[in-house]
Design goal:
The protein has a domain at 22-54. 73% of the residues lie in helices and 0% in strands. It has two helices and no strands. The chain has helices at residues 2-14, 24-54. The mean pLDDT is 77. Keywords: Membrane, Transmembrane, Transmembrane helix. This is Flp pilus assembly pilin Flp. InterPro entries: Flp_Fap (IPR007047). Pfam families: Flp_Fap.
């Protein structure tokens, strides 16, 4: 147990834990995915009726 506490305090002293950016990439990808989803949702709301009209069968 003492080894774990010593190891953890060593990281805090050197600033490694504070400067660790390993999770930053996952957050950036999540934000990018949310932005893409919002753009797709907005485009479907804006052009949804017009696009649906392209796929209807004509009345012969």
């Amino acid at each position: 147990m003492e080894f774990i506490i010593r190891g953890r305090s060593r990281h805090l002293e050197q600033g490694e834990l504070v400067n660790d950016e390993s999770g930053a990439t996952a957050v950036e990808y999540a934000l990018l995915l949310a932005l893409v989803a919002a753009v797709i949702f907005g485009a479907l709301q804006l052009f949804g009726g017009a696009v649906a009209g392209l796929f209807t069968l004509p009345d012969w």
